[in-house]
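Note on ligand handling. Small-molecule inputs were canonicalized before submission; formal charges were left as drawn, and no protonation-state enumeration was performed. Where a ligand contained multiple stereocentres, the stereochemistry in the source SMILES was retained. For flavin-adenine dinucleotide, this procedure yielded the string shown in the input block below.
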Amino acid sequence: MYDFAYHKPSSVADAVKLLAADPDAKAVSGGHTLIPALKHRLNKPTSLVDLSGIAEMKGIRREGNAIVIGALTKHEAVATSAEVKAAIPVLAFVAKHIGDTQVRNRGTLGGSVANNDPAADYPAAVLGLGATVHTSKRKVAADEFFLGMFTTALEADEILTAISFPIPEKAGYAKMRNPASRYVMAGAFVSKGPMGVRVAINGAGPCVFRQAAMEAALSANWSADAVAAIMQDADGLNSDIHGSAEYRAHLVTVMAKRAVLAAG
Ligand SMILES: Cc1cc2nc3c(=O)[nH]c(=O)nc-3n(C[C@H](O)[C@H](O)[C@H](O)COP(=O)(O)OP(=O)(O)OC[C@H]3O[C@@H](n4cnc5c(N)ncnc54)[C@H](O)[C@@H]3O)c2cc1C
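Structure output:
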């Protein structure tokens, strides 16, 4: 580690001021991704703005036909929330299967979505449900939020404050995990509801993406058979020691079938 300034504001407005004042400042929430990056010197901010004391970014509530979750909400809180389980049970399932107990008790919804790791779970739920990302400046539709590997629509001094998830009629998630890291090799989040029929794929490509052919097939016939014959193009998918692009393309179909079966 190396020297950096540390700030712990208690409001979003103060946190934004601190980020805007220093172009090399970084926000930190659970720290489960950022702190290892600092230790490996992959990231060298001159100041850290710790968001964990900001009460307005915490909590889970129902607002009309949506569940709104504060960005600082830990994965474990989502996994065990009665409100989430009743309205969007698959969201609790997603949270319950992130990493291990320690990760779920430190990692936050906002940190995960802002980080946009291609193998993270929450981005699939955000895109697959057609959620709305609330920030310190605006509201951004999921379709406009995830821009590329570890890249989102967030600006340097913009804080993700909450996410509003529309309650679907049905939704399911399936993923093939890397047995060592537990990160997703390929996953599929499917839903049918106020945002239409949506299929979001994570892990397979550099960034979570929607699978248009599967969405069309499921719109016509909501069944696992409808997606069984649709092959994902391997072009542009991730290829590494854990699995080739072709293997991940194959997994996309398998995971989509399982997700539809899970959704019922
Ligand atoms: C061993 C291990 C296993 C894991 N397994 C999984 C897994 O299976 N699935 C999975 O999805 N994830 C997994 N993770 C990641 C985990 O979910 C992290 O907690 C998450 O990616 C980041 O959340 P955080 O709150 O720790 O973010 P931090 O580390 O605090 O921040 C991450 C990044 O987001 C930025 N940021 C944080 N909060 C905000 C905000 N509110 N607004 C704007 N920017 C913000 C930071 O500046 C930083 O760039 C794993 C992590 C570890 C260490």
